[in-house]
């Protein structure tokens, strides 16, 4: 499609799966994508607090599915349900993630396993299931992973999280290389400091002002700041982009 096409950023009628869609950034993106005309499948371990028994009637273009991304059987069942409602998922926003706050010496094997189970294995499970079905249906698609600026800028007390996000960035490149022949693009978004459920304690403490002061734009990220990058990678506008990571951090990573 020509870059001059007026609807090049459109996601209208695309079937898009968002993991971690019950809260925070994921919840925001579920509703943003639906507002842009997409049919959205929100996959999370629990329904959003605002959900209700007749949510499909109120918001028919949003389907909430409870599933654990770390469980491949759960994910297969979730995609089965998504296909029954909307058809084959052609775009994935791999957003689910967890973190643990601990120094390297106090990070246990169990902590590391839990973080990698969700952030890396879970993201791979979702990407693999989506790609398998796209290939079988012979349709083009896009997978968008959520990494972090901590993949290159480790933060004290977040060793497991930083390592998992570095692994996810490399996974993005590896999958992009393998699936390009099937016209499946795999890219990533690397947010800077955004207040979310997994860093709420940090973002509501003294560190918040420190991070704002260190940022060239003198503020933390807001959910809306990621919308443009997501729409770019999910739409035809990003049709020749694969294996890349878009950093959205207000210039924070420029400070070293």
What would you note in describing this structure?
With 256 residues, the protein is α/β, with parallel strands linked by helices. 39% of the residues lie in helices and 15% in strands. The chain has one domain (15-249): Rossmann fold. It is built from eight helices and seven strands. The chain has a seven-stranded parallel beta sheet with strand order 3-2-1-4-5-6-7, sandwiched between helices. The N and C termini lie far apart (39 Å).
Strand order of the largest sheet: 3-2-1-4-5-6-7
CA radius of gyration: 18 Å
Hey, roughly how much beta strand do the residues contain?
5-15%
Tally of domains? 1
Euclidean distance between termini CA atoms: 39 Å
Structural class: alpha/beta
Compute the number of helices: 8
Tell me, rounded to a whole number, the average pLDDT: 90
Characterize the largest beta sheet: strand count, sense, and whether it forms a barrel: 7 strands, parallel
Under CATH, the topology can be stated as: Rossmann fold
Shape, principal axes of CA atoms: globular
Q: What helical percentage do the residues reach?
A: 25-40%
GO molecular function, one term: quinone binding
Protein name: NAD(P)-dependent dehydrogenase (Short-subunit alcohol dehydrogenase family)
Family: Belongs to the short-chain dehydrogenases/reductases (SDR) family.
Keywords: Oxidoreductase
